[in-house]
Amino acid sequence: MARVFNFGAGPAVLPVEVLQEAQAELLDFKGSGMSIMEHSHRGKEYDAVHAEAIENVRKLLKLTDDYTVLFVQGGASLQFAMVPMNLLGAGQSADYVNSGAWGDKAVKEAKLFGNVNVIANTGKDIPTRMPKNEDLKLTPGAAYVHITSNETIAGSQWKVFPKTEAPLVADMSSDILSRPFDASQFGLIYAGAQKNLGPSGVALVVMRKELAERVGAKTPTMLKYKTYIEENSLYNTPPTFSIYVLALVTRWILKLGPETLYRQNVDKAGKIYQALDSSSFYKGTAVKEFRSDMNITFRLPTEELEELFIKEASKQGMKALKGHRSVGGIRASIYNAFPVAGVDALVAFMKDFEKKNG
Ligand SMILES: *Cc1c(COP(=O)(O)O)cnc(C)c1O
Fold it and tell me: Per-residue pLDDT tens for 102-117?
């Protein structure tokens, strides 16, 4: 078996144990003689999978009864629209932080539905960063406050979440379950699954149930959180295989221990940042206090060297290190499932590459 080190930003690496388990169960799920993909979403086999996925998320985020866990299709991108469609009433305004490409897209969608106050804008800042909490100009009476916990392209991450009176809404697509945080501080959290939770095809939504009551009567059934709450995300056929893998991934985190995982994530990122800081050849692109532990972005002295770096790394089994097409440079995405050995391999390669080309 030749597994490469996949530094891709998403869809991203999955735990080998999870892939093996899915493989072992693929033809005959628990003695049922068929794959979980072939089971009815109303049958007892899938029912158990669905319930476990929800229960695992509840445990990992330590959710209280006033929170609900939903599975929605359309990725995080549909959540950019669903959040304002459901939470932003006529004549109301919402506060948004634009911290980069993803925050910017969230703002754009929200503007289709109501008044948006951009209360901080670091989207175009170089080096990349999040705003400081004390710089947020929160609007009294805002319907909610929207942030992006980790800007996947910029490589910047919110370290201490702001305290807000209005419900705090976060796009956590690229760092959910990578570190401990107090879920009760949030009104709503969403995340496309394909970075830290599983395969593409499903977005996780965790929300305070009462917020779903705000929705207007004319909102289509499939775009109302209320429908997902009332039908346990089974109003229509959900992406059963994606939810199944999400159940396996969250089971894997519970088994490993979330604390162990968090420590491992900090250690992994720390090794690469140390390699950047101890060199004048590589240059990190994010302000130190906002450096992401999930997406590590850096530059080399020239674009030619960056191209060579990506090519040589690929030959050594380190794949998808190219930065996002909008910003260039190098991006090492090292989500929960990314192995420590891959980080060590990258650091060794970086030293070697600098020696040869520095
Ligand atoms: C990847 C990503 C998205 C887009 O997710 P889709 O599921 O492809 O819609 C949104 N926000 C952030 C922070 C992301 O990293």
Answer: 999 999 999 999 999 9
Specify whether 195 is catalytic: yes
CA distance 283 to 277: 8
Query: What are the pLDDT digits (tens) for 55-92?
Result: 999 999 999 999 999 999 999 999 999 999 999 998 99
Rg from Cα positions in the chain: 21
Active site residue 102: yes
Looking at the structure, tell me whether residues 310 and 283 fall in a common domain: yes
Q: Is-catalytic flag, 66?
A: no
Same domain, 174 and 274: no
Cβ pair 191, 76 in contact under 8 A = yes
* Predicted confidence (pLDDT) at residue 301 exceeds the cutoff of 70: yes
**99 alpha carbon to ligand 1 midpoint, in Å?**
14
When pLDDT is averaged across residues 193-198 and rounded to a whole number, the result is: 98
Q: Are residues 297 and 220 in the same domain?
A: no
> 41: CA distance to ligand 1 center in Å?
26
Please report whether residue 10 resides in a domain: no
Please check whether residue 1 lies inside any domain of the structure.
Answer: no
Q: Nearest C-alpha to atom 10 of ligand 1 is from which residue?
A: 76
Judge whether 174 and 195 are in contact, CB under 8 Å. Answer: yes
What residue numbers bound the domain in which 173 lies? 17-256
Judged on CB neighbours under 10 Å (0-12, 13-18, 19+), 146 is buried
Cα(192) to centroid(ligand 1), Å:
6
**Per-residue confidence (pLDDT) for residue 2, from 0 to 100:** 85
Quote the number of domains for the chain: 2
Q: For residues 43 and 97, state if they share a domain.
A: yes
End-to-end CA distance of the chain: 35
Given a cut of 90, whether residue 172 has pLDDT beyond it is: yes
Q: What is the pTM of this model?
A: 0.98
Note whether 110 and 154 are same-domain residues: yes
176 and 299 in a common domain: no
Residue 102 in contact with ligand 1 by CB distance below 6 A: yes
Please tell me if the CB atom of residue 103 comes closer than 6 angstroms to any atom of ligand 1. no
- What 3-state class would DSSP assign to 244? helix
Q: How is residue 34 written in tokens?
A: 């068929």
- Give the closest residue (by CA) to ligand 1 atom 2: 173
Query: Domain for residue 45, yes or no?
Result: yes
Q: Is 264 in the pocket of ligand 1 (CB under 6 A)?
A: no
Q: Are residues 243 and 270 in the same domain?
A: no
Considering the candidates 95, 158, 171, 322, report the single residue annotated as catalytic.
Answer: 171
How far is the centre of ligand 1, averaged over its atoms, from the C-alpha of 173 (Å)? 6
Q: Residue 1: its pLDDT value, please? A: 65
4 in any annotated domain: no
For the chain, what percent of residues have pLDDT higher than 70?
A: 100
